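Box S2. Input/output pair 1.
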Amino acid sequence: MSITFNGIIEFVAVAETQGFSAAARKLNVNVSHISRKVAALEKALGVSLLARSTRNVRLTDAGQSYFSRCQELVYGLQEANETVFDKQVELSGTLKVSAAGEFAEQHIAPLLMEFAQLHPKLAIEMDFNSQMVNFIDDAFDFSIRYGPMKDSSLIARKLTNRSLVAAASQEYLSKHGTPEHPSELAKHHCLMTNNTTWFFSHEDKRLEVKLDARWRSNSGRSVVSACERGLGIAYMPRSSYGDALKNGNLQPILAPYWNRDIATWIVYANRNFLPAKARLAINFLLEHFANWQE
């Protein structure tokens, strides 16, 4: 069978908008153009992709399978075209980014400063807030988030994997002893950020420990400070400790049980409508972290 790309963009638009009229508005063409292109594509493939009725349009089984492949092709083509265009455009306006924690301050912010230097007419606004944001109401272009993504309506691209590390001061360990298994943490003072449940991993098995906090704060730095003062045990990403592990102020514990593959994500609402300033900034970050090791 000969390969045809004629009608694919129109078909994907119909599938995404669930209607010929909506697809025509999206592509800024008339409805008859959409109808002709999709019909020609179906004829070329020899299969019905859409089930049409007077009220709605839905994908057939073959159409659903074809759409899942074609959507990525269309996005890839758009990005390829935009890459050429982006090299000729001068970025301006404001790029608004939500991020939080030591990792964002140490790594994300400096990179976005470098990105700003490459685009002198672009302003960058960073909000260091650990709460999930409303991309529409709060006008954020993208956010940096850590851990499992719960909102399937968002686009999430993995930036890097990071490791959780349990640590305490030598003063605390001398006074209270060193736990040898996560289950023993219930007998210890624990210092927490947002979660009262800590997840560990051992021999491909997940270990879940629900704990009470002696110190709880959404500031990673304050948790590290409390840990250095001997208030208890912390369990956070390695980068959140700053220099406390390197200079010996804190001692790593429970190393065989650390969760070592927690992803950090770039999250945004819908890449169909991602402006060039956001797309280029995202690609800039992804390229930097391609071979990054924590």
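Box S3. Input/output pair 2.
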Amino acid sequence: MSREKKKDAKAAEAATSQSDSENTESADAVELHENAGANVVEIDDSKSAPEDRATAGPFDVSEVPAMRPYVDLGGIKVAPREGLQLRLEVDERANRVAAVSLDYEDSLLQVQAFSAPKSSGLWGEVRAELIQQMTAQGAEVSEEEGLLGPEVVVNTPVPADQGGGTRLARFLAVDGPRWMLRGVIMGKAATDVATRELVIDLFRELVVVRGDQPMPPSELIPLRVPAGVQTDAPGEAQEA
């Protein structure tokens, strides 16, 4: 082979090698782009609430008669009923009431209210974060369609020194006008359908008092100790 032909062959080989390299890099780029897209989770920011929320609850304070008796906890009002006991969960570090726990029908319903945008909901975003967080902690997590919409069912391992086994909890929420009311159901109602219906009925009787003050989305709506309740034993259950 002449010197000129050898140079041409080497040039062609180099060009082919460069072309293969560029094709490989292009394929890698496409693959990376596709993989990156696979990790993107679309969050549903529409309001999650039953169609009859405004008439069957959970209620906004503007939707209930002012004279109806409630236990006033600030951001949440609880309708009294026989057999119901409530307990205030206090965050001692922040020195504030963080949640309301309602003991009813051998079950526990813990509730919190959060500020939300006027036109969109929070439960879709909160649900996605909850699933990611609880899965990372080693819990068994699934989504189910409940009586009020999507629920997150969490089965958490219980340490051996606490009896072992697992503990089941159901997370549910309803998006209202400028608020989201979230509940966690534990105990008998977490597994028994008939009891869960009673606890859901209790959840739907709750009233959220958002207030008119500006609040960023997802901020806990302040709760307070009701008048006449002793604050020296904040964890003690009170008859509602």
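Caption for Box S3: The mean pLDDT is 83. The helical segments are 3-38, 53-56, 123-136, 193-204.
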